[in-house]
Amino acid sequence: MKIAIDAMGGDHAPKAQVAGALAAVRSFEDVTITLLGDELKIAPHLSAHDRIDVVHTPSVITNDETPTQAIRKKKDSSMMLAVKAVREKRADACISAGNTGALMAAGLMQIGRINGLERPALAPMLPTLDGEGFLLLDVGANVDTRAEHLFQYGVMGDVYMRQVKNRKQPKVGLLNVGSEEGKGNDLSKQAYERMKSADFEFIGNIEARDVMNGGCDVVVCDGFSGNILLKSIEGTAESLFSIIKSELTSTMMNKMAAGILKPSFKNIKEKLSYSHYGGAGLFGLKAPVVKAHGSSDHTAVFHAIRQARQMVSEGVADVIATDLQRQRSE
Fold it and tell me: Which ranges of the sequence are coiled-coil (predicted)?
């Protein structure tokens, strides 16, 4: 299995990408990795390995560039070459921690959508109190959506959780302002009616305050609402740990207590960390494209590779295509 990685995207590139790739080839004997990027910057971090090769390019798409202009002007960039490798069947999947909009645009233009899919969705795994996590889609690929789009998100989320996360019968919920049927705006009401007849376990509406309780495996929403929820969860977690750290270092007694409780706080932080959940899959494309978090460290890159590997080995794109076709014909 071949995975192409944009080695220059993200805050800690290329060190994190190289370290994550080395960890992956040591853990997965069936994985071969191509790192796309500036060879002079990659080399100091890379130990020779027969299943890692480097394709040199000095061109990089930065986060402040307009996505459509960037992918047209920088066709030789590390991100574009990674996506191109998938299009040309030289790689089975690609990963980037770079410009999200550019990666989505490149994926759509170069790899293309699954037949019958109206809109792709950007979908990260987020933490739950039980440590299992839930899939949230969409978080920004589409701000304006229709009920059919949300229904298709449900299909894709159900497939991913069955094929990759081994959840036998994933519970799919619709993000809303209340849990009762009939709540929400016109889109929510139409999506609810559409999803009631779906061939997956639709549990109805779910409120934002309940998504981390573990009662739902897949949360479906439009990209505007999903991005707000994602940023709210990330911001709350960061603020909470900042408050705890400030409080526990405020007095000598608190510092002594912090020393005793340090292992527990470490476990809590790991449960809330995105790094162990992989990246956000761009669901709906004909091959796996994974958007790693911009601040990904080597652990996050490793888990993004693990995620891409599972998506390839389980044929997630093909299963999504089959399920969409089946549910359209029913």
Answer: none
